[in-house]
Amino acid sequence: MDNQQDRILDVANVDKSVQVGDGGLDILSGISFTIKAGETVAIVGVSGSGKSTLLSILAGLDRPTRGLVTLCGQPLNNLDEDGRAAVRGQHVGFVFQSFHLLPNLTALENVLLPMEVLGRQNAEETAATLLERVGLSRRLSHYPRQLSGGEQQRVAIARAFVTAPDIVFADEPTGNLDSSTGQSVIDLLFDVNREKRTTLVLVTHDPALADRCGRRLRLDGGRLQEEAPAESPLPEVRNAR
């Protein structure tokens, strides 16, 4: 029996269309699936298949044209932008391809920021401990311009997990890194995710990275197919045909 409380994310018949010239362009069509607490899920597909658009909708950064997204028990369609931002602040962490660190803040200040917004206690101690965990204990006072790409992504990982979110969304987290640095960053991302027992949903074009996840959702022409890793049975997926 499926336990409703175990569900982090419910997606029901989501479509996304945009106006192009005199007509419309369908980016996503009939997307439905459920993600449970603690799962690791890769969203894959060719360039332009709608991966990043879907991730933005899942996180409440964008709104679907039709359909319903429920994130951590909150129906995002019923919320305005402030309401969706509040849900993200309480439940969500992000890791972006281009790091999205604030250039005028140090590594410590970048990681502190989400905790300060939420008014969390022991914010500086928590941020410093997490930066130590990602191997940056000697870089707390450095600004992003003084850090390598790999170090900047480590700061971004620390920032994503510092509020103890229920779910972390990662959009091409190794896209701006060389293969060696990218591998070490991915190892770290999965290690911290496992330690924190967080749900992880990532967009990637890298098959090796997708294989690290327990589930793989493939977008093809805006429609969803689920692929099982070779060593795992195919999880149940609901999708409009």
Explained architecture:
With 241 residues, the protein is of the alpha/beta class. The protein has seven helices and ten strands. It has helices spanning 51-58, 81-91, 107-118, 123-133, 149-161, 179-196, 207-211, and strands at residues 7-20, 23-36, 40-44, 66-71, 74-75, 92-96, 167-171, 199-203, 215-220, 223-227. The strands form two sheets. It has a six-stranded mixed beta sheet. Strands 2-1-4-5 form a four-stranded antiparallel beta sheet, with helices on one face. Helix 3 runs parallel beside helix 5, helix 4 (123-133) crosses helix 5 and helix 5 (149-161) runs parallel beside helix 6.
What does this entry show, briefly?
The protein is of the alpha/beta class and 241 residues long. It has helices at residues 51-58, 81-91, 107-118, 123-133, 149-161, 179-196, 207-211; strands spanning 7-20, 23-36, 40-44, 66-71, 74-75, 92-96, 167-171, 199-203, 215-220, 223-227.
Topology:
Blueprint: E1 7-20, E2 23-36, E3 40-44, H1 51-58, E4 66-71, E5 74-75, H2 81-91, E6 92-96, H3 107-118, H4 123-133, H5 149-161, E7 167-171, H6 179-196, E8 199-203, H7 207-211, E9 215-220, E10 223-227
Parallel strand pairs: 3-8, 3-9, 6-7, 7-8
Antiparallel strand pairs: 1-2, 1-4, 4-5, 9-10
Helix pairs in contact: 3-4, 3-5, 4-5, 5-6
Task: Please count the helical segments.
Answer: 7
Biggest sheet details: 6 strands, mixed
Measured distance between first and last alpha carbons: 24 Å
Name the helix and strand elements from N-terminus to C-terminus, one letter apiece.
EEEHEEHEHHHEHEHEE
Number of strands: 10
Low-pLDDT stretches: 230-241
Mean pLDDT: 89
The coarse overall form would be globular
Strand order of the largest sheet: 6-7-8-3-9-10
Percent in helix: 25-40%
* Strand content bin: 25-35%
User: What structural class do the secondary elements suggest?
Assistant: alpha/beta
Radius of gyration: 18 Å
